[in-house]
């Protein structure tokens, strides 16, 4: 049976996702879902809008992020919902830039996805989800 890992931190999840949390990041939250075969990892934080592209470029996505104008009918990530962190699901928001970073990734990381949603005129929330 899957369960959320007690004591998972932003630092521990960032390390598993092979991501460096930007110095300007605020409101950072993360969780680790231990599964029978694979583990789900989610992390989100808010960045100044002018730092988002630099952060995404460091991830070296396979393709430029695509812009999805409309919310999806349902979340495509039901096993590791961002609602566990008290956040809206990026799939259910409008005007989200998103894409696959790597699949497969290095080490034990199976895949990593990123989504970016505007919070206000100055900031955006970066959502990362991966499977280890």
Number of strands: 7
- 3D shape: globular
The count of helical stretches stands at: 2
Q: Count the domains.
A: 1
For the biggest β-sheet, the strand order reads 1-2-3-7-6-5-4
Largest sheet: 7 strands, antiparallel
Sheet-strand content, in percent, reads: 35-45%
N- to C-terminal separation?
16 Å
The computed structural class is alpha+beta
Unreliable residue runs: none
- The helix-strand sequence is EHEEHEEEE
Helix content: 10-25%
Mean pLDDT comes to 93
Radius of gyration: 14 Å
Describe the structure.
- The protein is built from 2 helices and 7 strands, in the order E-H-E-E-H-E-E-E-E.
- With 132 residues, it is of the alpha+beta class.
- The longest helix is centred in the middle third of the chain and has 11 residues.
In terms of topology, how is this protein built?
Elements: E1 3-4, H1 10-17, E2 26-34, E3 40-48, H2 49-59, E4 66-68, E5 96-102, E6 111-118, E7 123-131
Antiparallel strand pairs: 1-2, 2-3, 3-7, 4-5, 5-6, 6-7
Provide a compact summary of the structure:
The chain is of the alpha+beta class and 132 residues long.
